[in-house]
């Protein structure tokens, strides 16, 4: 019985092997399906060379063109003025910024002026007797001498005898000593040289001020300058007075400026040249960060495309008879997002946007943008 079962199983295996071999032979002779060619749709642009302006992008922070760092040249107590000495306080030209208590020093100045007056008055009898021709001149000087006003200039001496006589009485030396004291007395009061605003205050009323101490900073907020560093390649292209467009980092505001100065030397470390851009606008503040676009020069017979369309081999993709190809180009200038190229013939069809996995010989077709529907009448 066992032998019969094994014989049946063997026979079934032989029959199954026959049909499986027949199926394999049929599958081998069946023709393989032909895969359809994939045609990729791309955005293209037809080249027309033109004059491309080379715009140099630079950035920097604003600084007031007129700035005053306030330092003390005398010592004393800071007296309270008509306005608080605080950041943000505005002053007009000629208004007092800081006034230091000068009562003690003022008394010494008045004493020196009084001594000068007395020394001149002491020689008047001698002038009446020995120099009657110049007596009236010195008498008028004494009459106009006011201890509460600035000491007037001494009368001009017209002869050597007069000069020797006046100098011998130490009047000239006393006069210049008084003028020196008056000059120092003027330093006890610091006035605004121009209309502006206080941006830094390091002292307050009642503070003891010492000679050489920094007191604050004062600026004119109407005119600002921005310092930018430009590559030495464009050193000969920057011109004073050239208009410049500036914008903030958010690209929401534009300002008009001009190149006010260009440094005459190149930084040996960075190989850049410094240019200064002057800008006026009521919305600007010192320290604001801006971007500037400097018009360096114009390049003829050139095109401008996105930087990501330029290959590392200094080539770009072009479309020729529905196939991608590459051509050699000559880059002239690189910006953050654009590149200016030459040696691209007019009428050349190039890619307008990058194509992932692109290669020379890829089958493509140009995307035709549908014209906008006309407004219905």
UniProtKB/TrEMBL annotation:
Domain Multidrug resistance protein MdtA-like barrel-sandwich hybrid: 68-215
GO CC, any one term: efflux pump complex
InterPro entries, sorted: Beta-barrel_RND_2, MdtA-like_BSH
Boundaries of every CusB-like beta-barrel domain copy: 227-297
Molecular functions per Gene Ontology: efflux transmembrane transporter activity
Domain of life: Bacteria
SUPFAM superfamilies documented for this protein: HlyD-like secretion proteins (SSF111369)
PANTHER family the UniProt entry points to: HLYD FAMILY OF SECRETION PROTEINS, MULTIDRUG RESISTANCE PROTEIN MDTA
Protein name: Multidrug efflux pump subunit AcrA (Membrane-fusion protein)
Top-level taxonomy: Bacteria, Pseudomonadati, Bacteroidota, Flavobacteriia, Flavobacteriales
């Amino acid at each position: 019985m066992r032998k019969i079962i094994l014989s049946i199983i063997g026979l079934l295996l032989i029959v199954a092997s026959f049909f499986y071999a027949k199926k394999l032979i049929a599958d081998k002779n069946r023709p393989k399906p032909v895969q359809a060619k994939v045609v990729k749709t791309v955005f293209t642009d037809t080249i027309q060379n033109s004059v491309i302006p080379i715009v140099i992008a630079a950035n920097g922070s604003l600084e007031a063109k007129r700035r005053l760092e306030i330092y003390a040249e005398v010592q004393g107590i800071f007296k309270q003025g008509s306005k608080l000495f605080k950041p943000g306080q505005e002053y007009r030209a000629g208004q007092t910024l800081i006034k230091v208590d000068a009562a003690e020093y003022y008394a010494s100045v008045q004493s020196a002026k009084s001594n000068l007056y007395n020394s001149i008055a002491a020689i008047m009898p001698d002038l009446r007797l020995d120099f009657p021709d110049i007596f009236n001149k010195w008498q008028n000087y004494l009459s106009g001498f006011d201890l509460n006003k600035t000491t007037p200039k001494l009368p001009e001496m017209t002869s050597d005898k007069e000069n020797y006589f006046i100098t011998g009485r130490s009047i000239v030396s006393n006069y210049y000593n008084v003028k020196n004291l008056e000059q120092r007395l003027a330093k006890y009061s610091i006035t605004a040289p121009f209309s502006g605003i206080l941006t830094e205050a390091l002292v307050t009323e009642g503070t003891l001020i010492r000679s050489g101490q920094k007191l604050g900073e004062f600026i004119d907020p109407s005119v600002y300058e921005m310092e930018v560093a430009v590559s030495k390649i464009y050193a000969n292209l920057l011109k004073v007075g050239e208009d410049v467009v500036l914008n903030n980092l958010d690209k929401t505001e534009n300002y008009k400026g001009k190149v006010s100065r260009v440094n005459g030397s190149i930084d040996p470390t960075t190989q850049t040249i410094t240019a200064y851009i002057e800008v006026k606008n009521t919305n600007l503040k010192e320290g604001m960060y801006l971007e500037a676009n400097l018009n360096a020069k114009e390049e003829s017979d050139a095109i401008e495309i996105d930087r990501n369309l330029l290959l590392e081999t200094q080539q770009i993709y072009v479309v020729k008879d529905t196939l991608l190809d590459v051509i050699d180009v000559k880059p002239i200038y690189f910006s953050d997002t654009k590149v200016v190229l030459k040696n691209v013939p007019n009428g050349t069809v190039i890619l307008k946007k990058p194509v992932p996995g692109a290669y020379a010989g890829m089958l493509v077709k140009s995307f035709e943008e549908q014209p906008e529907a006309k407004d219905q009448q």
